[in-house]
Amino acid sequence: MMAIIPATWDMYDMFQAVIQAPAYHLIFEALLIIWIFKLMFSKAYAPNKTILTEKEKEELIQEWQPEPLVPDVPDDHPVLQAMNNNIISGRPDKVMVINGKSVVNMASLNFLGLLGDESIEAAAQKALSKYGVGSCGPRGFYGTMDVHLELEERLAKFMNCEEAILYSYGFATIASAIPAYSKRGDVIFVDEGVCFAIQKGLIASRSVIKYFKHNDMDDLERLCIEQQKEDKRVPKKAKVTRRFLVVEGLYAKHGDICPLPKLVEMKWKYKLRIFVEESFSFGVLGDTGRGVTEHYGINIDEIDLMAACLENAIGGAGGFCCGKKYIVDHQRLSGLGYCFSASLPPMLASGAIQSLNIIIDDPGMFGKLRNNCTLIHEKLSKIEGMRVVGDPVAPIKHFSLSEPSDDRDLDNRSLEKITQEAMQRGLALTPARYLEHEEHNLPLPSIRIAVNVKLTEEEIDTCINIVADSCQAVLSKSS
Amino acid sequence: MSGLVDKSTMQTSFRFKLKKFLNVTNCSTKITNGYGQKHPKTSDWRKTWWESFEETPLYAAIWTYLGYGMLVIVGYIRDFLRDIGLETQKSCTEPKIPGFVPLYQSWENFYTRNLYRRVRDCWNRPVCSVAGAYVDVTERLTHDCGWNFELTDNFQHTMNFGSYNYLGFADNVGPCKDSVDKTCKRYGLSSCGSRQELGQLDIHHELEDLIAQFLGVEAAITVPMGFATNSMNMPCIAKKGSLILSDELNHASLVLGSRLTGSTIRTYKHCDMEDLERKLRTAIIEGQPRTHKAWKKIIIVIEGVYSMEGSIVCLPEVVRLKKKYKAYIYLDEAHSIGAIGPNGRGVVDYFNMSPSDIDIRMGTFTKSFGSAGGYIAGSKRLVNHLKCNSHSSIYSPVMPPPVAQQIITSMKIIMGLNGTDEGRRRILQLKDNIRYFRRRLHEMGFIIYGNKDSPVVPILIYYPSKTVAFSRECLKRGLATVVVGFPATSIIESRARICLSSAHTREMVDRALNIIDEVGNLLRIKYSNLAVPRWCEDDKNANDIL
Question: CB B181 to CB A128 under 8 A?
Answer without folding.
Answer: yes
